[in-house]
Write a structure and sequence with these properties.
Helix content is about 70%, strand content about 0%. With about 70 residues, the protein is mainly alpha-helical.
Length: about 70
Amino acid sequence: MTTLVKSILKDALRLSPNDRAALVESLIGSLDQPDPSVDALWVQEAQDRIAAYHSGELTAIDAKTAFSDLGQPL
């Protein structure tokens, strides 16, 4: 932990519980930013799977069977 981070943490610990919670939520939220390139890859994957299903290259099974095959009850 750098000196700057230690200083920020020391200051943050002086905040009220509500302000600390808001700070934590903001910091965690800043880490969870969507990546447009990954989103685009998932869109393409979904489109490819739908196309394969419609062309008959891919078949579907019902959820009960899928989860049963995984050993998980539905």
